[in-house]
Amino acid sequence: MAFARRVAAVIPLVGAVTTAAALTGAAFLTVAHAGCDEAGRFVRTGESMEFVGGCVNGADLPAAPTAEAENVDRFGGSKKP
Q1: What is the pLDDT of residue 70?
Q2: Model confidence over 6-41: pLDDT tens digits?
Q3: How far apart are CA 13 and CA 11, in angstroms?
Q4: Which UniProt keywords apply (predicted)?
Q5: Of the candidates 25, 54, 24, 50, the residue with the CA atom closest to the CA atom of residue 39
Q6: Cβ-contact 52, 42 below 8 angstroms
Q7: H-run or E-run covering 21
Q8: Alpha-carbon span 11 to 16, nearest angstrom
Q9: CB 41 within 8 A of CB 52
Q10: Are the CB atoms for 61 and 51 separated by under 8 Å?
Q11: Rounded to the nearest 5 degrees, what angle is found at the Cα of 16, between the Cα atoms of 8 and 1?
């Protein structure tokens, strides 16, 4: 009976470790087969960092939303009533 309780206690741990290993393997395979020839790099421009290269073109990304400056709370980001 004690052995059955120990096995029952270890099964969730083994399942969690197996799931974590499978997800880690899937992530590595996804990155390895992404099909990007140039990974890109970060370059310091003045006081900021800029990502140069890579597979994503800036024109492919959606434009950032704009908001009226006087209608936005600086700290919360929500609109003022």
Answers
A1: 64
A2: 888 899 999 999 999 999 999 999 888 877 777 788
A3: 5
A4: Signal
A5: 54
A6: yes
A7: helix 2-32
A8: 9
A9: yes
A10: no
A11: 5
Residue recorded with tokens 């006087």 = 70
Give the CA distances from residue 18 to residues 2, 26, 53, 80, in Å, rounded to whole numbers and listed in that order: 24, 12, 36, 49
**H or E segment and range at residue 29:** helix 2-32
DSSP, collapsed to helix, strand or coil, labels residue 59 as: helix
At residue 24, the pLDDT reads 97
Reply yes or no on whether the pLDDT at 80 is more than 60: no
Question: Which residue carries 């950032």 as its tokens?
Answer: 64
pLDDT tier, 61 (very low <50, low <70, confident <90, very high otherwise): confident
Q: Looking at per-residue confidence, does 15 or 64 come out higher?
A: 15
